[in-house]
Design goal:
The chain is an alpha+beta fold. The chain is built from 18 helices and 21 strands. Among the domains are: about 130 residues, Resolvase, N-terminal catalytic domain (Rossmann fold); about 150 residues, Hect, E3 ligase catalytic domain fold; about 55 residues. The strands form eight sheets. A five-stranded mixed beta sheet has the order 4-3-5-6-7, with helices on both faces. Strands 16-20-21 form a three-stranded mixed beta sheet, with no helix packed on it. Strands 17-18-19 form a three-stranded antiparallel beta sheet. α1 links the parallel β3 and β4.
Length: about 575
């Protein structure tokens, strides 16, 4: 209790605001901050009436629950002073400090920091000046540093498939950040992808083939058609990456942070702003092959322009106007004339040529869409996808994913450690500014550290979660369960389109033959991409148990391999 003019006055009501970020601090940091702030209040005779704490939340965002609650309580005049370890606990965006100061000052509330005492107009002005110069120069400084690295043939972003970062020293020489070298094993895959696409194979078929062969995709993940074709305007995707012809392109997009949400949003730059550097030592494919692929990409893009989704720059498969209406649309062929089986009545398939007259085809057998789909799905479920026939395949998937996750985890751990060290150094410099002990060179040092931090964050953004398949002992059982739900997946509105596309890739082509001894008077042979996966899973044992598989009397012919691993992965992840 204190006295003013002989009358007792209540002690100032103090609140504590504490925060830590998971990238470089532990949860105990909150307790440490609160303890020191309480001691500070006790020394000054203040009463702590509330503690606001935001764990594991970045100071760059104002959308912090406890932070917002504190501002709401300030408007209700529930306290007189805010105590924090440092002003960076309130916000790491220096430009926002003046706004926070004004909001609290308007309510008659003061701010105290442990290391600098009361935050005054002088502190705010000083920090605001630093922020003004910092904000103006940092972006240019960062871009200038990256541009200089690009000009020297160094990569300013993450790792592209087919390359690896050079170690700190190689052949007794110190290497620079951003230096890359070709990984020949992956480079050969890149050449295969370009060659297959140039020969007319679709991205979907290429991805299926690579997954079938067990070739790990970027980051150890399964291949997808979007990984290959990317997005035209941004120049993303394996087939559009100019680095493969020894050309390093930088500056396609700029990133801005939205003031309201704190999120970074990409904005495409004008091509005149692109910086292009020749790096012939990083070339993987020839100009001739590259030009052939780009010409085909442009042609496919032109054909798909009408009705195309604004988010798709290539894929006809993603165009709702070009998607097959039914599971087997375009896959059925008549064995008598080679023509297509199409819907010729209410949900009934029949030979298109037979519809034109007996002179074109004598096959008059029709079958309902529901029956043929049920038979095809039953064949896939019961004849080819039993758990015992995929054990070997699933074990291989487990090993590949385990390796990919381990490598990705090590990479992310290293980057997070570097980010934590850099952030700590920046915080220390800001403490020096607050305490008035900063040297004149502090701005240059801050810019350098922030540029370094931005580079690390960019590399972290390139990292992905590689746990696409949970490593579990009952993986084959889970797989079999999902295969049994094939028909159900075709009726699930959330995954119907994707499930249909993936199952169609398993089927390939179905030859329809009149046969009075077959169900519904129709024998069906499925010529898909299933054989290799069966051979991989069961080996020669399958042939001994099912010697007539694919033979003249069988209801199912198998001539290739299946994209089963990717199917299970994608479908399960969407359903959980």
């Amino acid at each position: 209790m204190s006295f003013a003019n002989g009358a007792p006055t209540r002690p100032l009501r103090a609140v504590i605001y504490a925060r830590y970020s998971s990238d470089n601090q532990s949860e105990s940091s909150i307790d440490d901050q609160v303890r020191e702030c309480r001691a500070y209040a006790e020394r000054l005779g203040w009463s702590v009436v509330q503690v606001y704490a935001d764990p594991e939340i970045s100071g760059r965002s104002a959308f912090r629950p406890e932070y917002q609650r504190m501002l709401a309580d300030a408007e209700r005049h529930r306290f007189d002073v805010v105590i924090c370890e440092g002003v960076d606990r309130l916000s790491r965006r220096l430009a926002d400090l003046a706004g926070i100061y004004d909001i609290l000052a308007a309510e008659g509330i003061r701010i105290h920091a442990l290391h600098s005492g009361e935050i005054t107009d002088m502190h705010v002005s000083m920090l605001g000046l630093v922020a003004q110069q910092f904000s103006k120069d940092l972006g240019q400084k960062t871009r200038r540093g990256q541009a200089g690295r690009i000009a020297k043939g160094k990569v300013a972003g993450g790792l592209a498939y087919g390359y690896q970062a050079l170690p700190p020293t190689k052949n007794g020489k110190t290497t620079e950040a951003g230096e890359r070298e070709i990984v020949e094993e992956e480079a050969e895959v890149v050449r295969r992808i370009f060659t297959m696409y140039a020969s007319g194979i679709t991205p979907e078929e290429i991805a299926a083939r690579l997954n079938r062969e067990g070739v790990p995709g970027p980051g150890g993940r399964p291949w997808r058609n979007t990984t290959l074709r990317g997005q035209g305007k941004r120049g993303t995707g394996i087939l559009r990456n100019e680095l493969y012809v020894g050309r390093l392109v930088w500056g396609r997009a700029s990133f801005i942070r939205m003031p309201k949400t704190g999120k970074r949003v990409a904005r495409l730059n004008d091509p005149s702003q692109f910086q292009i550097t020749e790096v012939p030592h990083l070339r993987i494919v020839s100009d001739e092959l590259w030009n052939t692929v780009q010409a085909r990409l442009e042609e496919v893009g032109r054909r798909a322009t009408a009705g195309r989704s604004s988010n798709d720059d290539h894929g006809v498969d993603l165009n709702a106007n070009h998607r097959p209406k039914y599971l087997l649309t375009g896959l059925l062929r008549c064995s008598c004339c080679g023509g297509s089986y199409i819907i010729i009545g209410k949900d009934r398939y029949g030979c298109n040529n037979r519809k034109r007259g007996t002179g074109m085809c004598t096959n008059s057998i029709t079958i309902t869409r529901q029956k043929i789909e049920e038979r095809i799905l039953a064949c896939l479920r019961h004849s080819l996808m039993a758990p015992e026939r995929v054990q070997t395949f699933m074990a291989e998937i487990q090993q590949q994913i385990k390796t990919a996750r381990r490598d990705a985890s090590a990479k992310q751990s290293t980057l997070r450690k570097r980010l934590g060290e850099t952030t700590k150094a920046i915080d220390h410099m800001l403490d020096m500014v607050e305490a008035g002990t900063a040297p004149k060179s502090i701005l240059d040092r801050l810019r350098d550290r922030e540029a370094e931090k931005a580079q690390i964050e960019a590399e972290l953004a390139q990292q992905h979660d590689d746990s696409v398949i949970a490593l579990m002992p009952n993986l084959a059982e889970v797989y079999a369960t999902k295969v049994a739900e094939l028909a159900e997946s075709l009726n699930d509105p959330e995954i119907k389109t994707e499930a249909t596309e993936l199952i169609r890739q398993l089927i390939g082509r179905v030859v329809m033959s009149p046969d009075p001894d077959a169900p519904d008077g129709m024998r069906m042979e499925v010529h898909g991409i299933l054989g290799e996966i069966v051979a991989l899973a069961a080996g020669q044992e399958l042939k001994s148990k099912l010697p007539d598989l694919g033979g003249p009397g069988s209801q199912l012919s198998v001539v290739a391999g299946a994209r089963i691993g990717l199917y299970r992965t994608r479908l399960q992840s969407r359903r959980q």
